[in-house]
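call fold target=SGNH/GDSL hydrolase family protein
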Amino acid sequence: MRYVAIGDSFTEGVGDERPDGTPRGWADLTAAGWAASLGEPIEYANLAIRGKLAWPVVDGQLEAALALNPTHLSFNGGGNDMLRPGTDLERIVDAFVTVERRCREQGVTPILLAGADPSGGLPMSKLIRRRGDELTEAVTKRLRRTDGIVWAINWTDAELRDPAFWSPDRLHMNFRGHHRVAARVLEALGQRVPEGWWALTEQGAPHLGTRDYYRAHVGPWVKRRLTGRSSGDGRAPKFGEWITVSGEF
């Protein structure tokens, strides 16, 4: 089994950091859970880079991922697009269609995800929720008659909207949220989900008050937009080549 993940911060694992500050996240957890369920190691790569829009993910990561000759490829994109004005949802849908088509051409099983819904804790929450609803509906409608896709739809998971699943920046899930997404992916793959992953009992870091939150997270995000910078600038994939994963990560 050879599993490669492409995407943005959601797939890179931002919000679920190890003690040394490196991100883990749902894709790493899925690889570990998959190996544990099979009872044997699997090969895993993760080319995701935070801050990327949907089409830069496809243009910059898809062919490199397929060149690794995977058996399965996961893709999610569009979360960063939805935070920007003038978002063309059909253009994002085209990115999903392109990933599915290229996987089919290469004999790779696509795992398509809808990200979790962060809108309850963010400014412009109604707009973000509406765009996410429309994007999820548009992607599933366009590809619903396509066989061979593994679907992991997190956007409509109402429980996952609870602040307990989100990191202090309110935009990225914490370790509880990433475990819940990994549980959904493993279930979609027909694999055993480790006990407790749907709703871990440990509590995440406390959230900041409104003023401190805007100073620590919203302000820097706005500054990057105004200066044309991305949180992923200069970053390399955390696992650009195959690594062997057993039952833990």
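return ok
The CA atoms of residues 105 and 211 lie 50 Å apart. DSSP finds seven helices and six strands in the chain.
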